[in-house]
């Protein structure tokens, strides 16, 4: 049974297929094909257009929406059938015509194509080639531009990985400097997008199994992690999992920095993961009831083999942690003036399953607030005395 989700959270644990939930409904996501399509993009509009008005009026060409005559898309690589690729190119052209494809900003949509899956999620992004010399840039109107499309799963599923896919195309930006690079690096890189950007969380769950609770605890508590004797792929997978499971971006940046410093200065310092054997061995690892409960959600989800489901579980794990942090901070504010609220704080920490982590987080956040700091100090004493932290 999955841990309870935050009240009002509509992002339920479900497969990325419409109405997902049952194993049969997840199988197309698990065994279905993934696709990519890669285009060279060239603006056909004259750089002098719109310069004649000279008054910056809205009628200038810069304020106009481009038409299909203003650009061209040349196919560089794809694994789509010819008919489906033509349909996809038409979709991208319409997005460009509407001015809805901004450089460097990935988008996700559902597209209907002539493929067995019929409708699939599509991540698409327009970007410029990087690492050009200044002279090369001056000799041409602008840096070469491209449009990349990754297709698979559903729109909802790919949206969970949009940031990972944004990062994934960064390597393309600096590798498109020759036709040789297109054959030796870019095409294999495009073919591997699903395994490299979407599946790391799934692989980590399968590798760690019940030991995943320690990894979740390290991510939640900002504990430094060292990975030894692992191949490059496994080390990257673990790093990506920790980044995806952390509350970075969901708590104040100063709090995160202070927590990282505090955890590094603790006696045990880093958690060590030794991957020299068939199963990873962990040293200096910590856990709590909250992380163990969510570990079971991941392990149970492994039966379906749906990588999108794992990411949804991870998002709900973080959402529940944030809800608990906010509840504790609310209780602390009340406890500044009410002794009964102080008892509520204590009972909440005792029952939530992650009191050890929550107390560290609010301690850092309230370091400059005397009344709240006093409440946290009392709570720390209570937790030590009852050994429930």
Class by SSE composition: alpha+beta
- Separation of the first and last Cα atoms: 24 Å
Classify the helix fraction into a percent range: 40-55%
State the strand order across the main sheet. 2-1-5-4-3
Rg, alpha carbons? 25 Å
Number of helices: 17
Shape: elongated
Largest sheet: 5 strands, antiparallel
Poorly predicted regions are 4-31, 46-66, 133-138
Strand content: 5-15%
Q: How much is the average pLDDT?
A: 80
H-E order: HEEHEEHEHHHHHHHEHHEEHHHHH
Record field, number of beta strands: 8
Quick structural overview:
By secondary structure, the protein is of the alpha+beta class. It has helices at 23-31, 82-97, 134-139, 155-159, 162-168, 170-173, 179-191, 193-198, 200-208, 212-221, 232-245, 253-265, 289-301, 307-335, 339-352, 355-365, 370-386; strands at 35-43, 71-78, 107-112, 119-128, 145-151, 225-228, 271-274, 281-283. A five-stranded antiparallel beta sheet has the order 2-1-5-4-3, with helices on both faces.
């Amino acid at each position: 049974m999955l841990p309870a989700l935050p009240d009002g959270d509509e992002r339920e644990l479900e497969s990325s297929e419409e109405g997902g939930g049952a194993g049969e409904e997840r199988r197309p996501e698990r065994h279905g094909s993934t696709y990519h399509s890669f285009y060279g993009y060239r603006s056909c509009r004259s750089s002098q257009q719109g310069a004649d008005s000279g008054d910056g009026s809205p009628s200038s060409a810069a304020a106009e929406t481009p038409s299909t005559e203003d650009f061209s898309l040349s196919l560089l690589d794809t694994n789509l059938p010819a008919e489906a690729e033509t349909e996809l190119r038409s979709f991208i052209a319409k997005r460009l015509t509407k001015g809805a494809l901004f450089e460097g900003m990935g988008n996700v949509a559902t597209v209907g194509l002539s493929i067995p899956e019929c409708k699939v999620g599509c991540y698409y992004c327009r970007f410029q080639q990087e690492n050009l010399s200044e002279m090369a840039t001056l000799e041409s109107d602008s840096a070469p531009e491209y449009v990349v499309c990754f297709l698979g799963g559903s729109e909802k599923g790919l949206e969970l990985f949009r940031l990972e896919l944004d990062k994934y195309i960064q390597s393309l930006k600096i590798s498109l400097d020759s036709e040789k690079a297109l054959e030796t690096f870019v095409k294999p890189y495009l073919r591997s997008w699903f395994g490299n950007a979407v599946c790391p969380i799934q692989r980590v769950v399968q590798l760690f199994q019940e030991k995943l609770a320690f990894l979740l605890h390290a991510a939640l508590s900002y504990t430094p992690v060292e990975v030894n004797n692992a191949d490059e792929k496994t080390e990257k997978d673990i790093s990506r999992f920790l980044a995806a499971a952390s509350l970075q971006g969901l708590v104040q940046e100063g709090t995160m920095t202070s927590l990282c410093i505090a955890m590094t200065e603790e006696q045990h310092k880093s958690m060590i993961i030794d991957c020299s054997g068939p199963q990873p061995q962990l040293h200096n690892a910590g856990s709590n009831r909250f992380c163990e409960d969510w570990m079971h959600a991941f392990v149970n989800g492994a039966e379906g083999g749906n990588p999108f489901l794992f990411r949804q579980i991870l998002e709900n794990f973080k959402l529940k942690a944030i809800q608990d942090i906010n509840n504790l901070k609310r209780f602390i504010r009340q406890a500044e003036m009410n002794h009964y609220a102080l008892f509520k704080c204590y009972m909440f920490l005792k029952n939530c399953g992650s009191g050890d982590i929550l107390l560290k987080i609010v301690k850092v956040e309230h370091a400059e607030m005397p009344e709240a700091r006093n409440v946290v100090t009392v709570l720390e004493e209570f937790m030590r005395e009852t050994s429930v932290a």
